[in-house]
């Protein structure tokens, strides 16, 4: 197990990975991209007709081109694509991907899953080789809270129950989603902080499990 230890002067690059149909102008991913100079979207292409291997290849290319370390921020089907990338492109612990925030993962395994996302099944169950946090809503139409928690367990991710937030997208009315920004900051810290100081997996888990200090309540569940 090898924590990343490259150029510690490098700040982490945050790469967003949207889901089916991409993230529109009022989606929190888009707002973060516009407000943070360290944040950019991976242009996966084929937004309406996604293909698993094509998306994994695009993620791999973006990670290779970015200055390391990389923090991935996935939403919906983007979370499953990240899990597939980690399965098909194994890395040492924490390098070059140093952490991930995985929000409202889509359940591609359910019987009524749309045909557009069924090609991403089965959901990978391999533990992710970096600190990660799965955040899910209790009334998400794309996944049950129990199934999202099960994914977090499989991936070795810390789990956050956000309460009733729908699919945690633009329709949820989250705007800039300050609670999500706090969760992202926690992932960055768990991955090694803004300057890349190496964290042990145990230290990373302790940081991810830390209670929120903000005003927006959420329920934490250690996996």
List the helices and strands and how they pair.
Elements: E1 13-17, H1 28-35, E2 39-41, H2 52-65, E3 70-75, H3 77-88, E4 97-103, H4 115-118, E5 132-136, H5 145-155, E6 158-161, H6 178-191, H7 201-208, E7 219-221
Parallel strand pairs: 1-2, 1-3, 3-4, 4-5, 5-6
Antiparallel strand pairs: 6-7
Helix pairs in contact: 2-3, 6-7
Structural class: alpha/beta
- In angstroms, what separates the terminal alpha carbons? 20 Å
Q: What is the mean predicted local confidence, pLDDT?
A: 87
Give the H and E element order.
EHEHEHEHEHEHHE
Assembly type of the chains comes to single chain
Shape: globular
Total beta strand runs = 7
What are the segments in which pLDDT stays under 50 over at least 5 consecutive residues?
1-9, 213-223
User: In order across it, which strands form the biggest sheet?
Assistant: 2-1-3-4-5-6-7
Largest sheet, in brief, is: 7 strands, mixed
Query: How much is the radius of gyration in Å?
Result: 16 Å
Q: How much of the sequence is in beta strands?
A: 5-15%
């Amino acid at each position: 197990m090898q924590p990343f230890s490259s150029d510690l002067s490098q700040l982490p690059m945050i790469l967003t990975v949207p889901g089916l149909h991409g993230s529109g102008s009022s989606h929190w991913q888009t707002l973060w991209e516009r407000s943070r100079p360290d944040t950019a979207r991976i242009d996966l292409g084929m937004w309406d007709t996604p293909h698993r291997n094509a998306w994994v290849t695009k993620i791999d290319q973006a990670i290779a081109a970015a200055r390391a370390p990389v923090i991935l921020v996935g939403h919906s089907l983007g979370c499953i694509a990240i899990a597939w990338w980690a399965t098909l492109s194994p890395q040492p612990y924490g390098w070059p991907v140093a952490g991930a925030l995985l929000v409202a993962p889509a359940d591609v395994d359910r019987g009524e899953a749309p045909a557009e996302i069924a090609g991403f099944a089965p959901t990978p169950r391999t533990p992710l080789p970096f600190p990660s946090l799965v955040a899910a809503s209790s009334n998400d139409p794309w996944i049950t809270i129990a199934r999202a928690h099960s994914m977090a367990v499989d991936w070795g991710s810390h789990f956050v129950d956000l309460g009733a937030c729908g699919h945690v997208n633009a329709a949820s009315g989250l705007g800039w989603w300050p609670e999500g920004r706090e969760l992202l900051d926690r992932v960055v810290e768990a991955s090694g902080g803004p300057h890349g100081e190496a964290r042990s997996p145990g230290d990373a888990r302790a940081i991810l499990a830390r209670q929120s200090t903000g005003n927006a309540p959420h329920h934490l569940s250690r996996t």
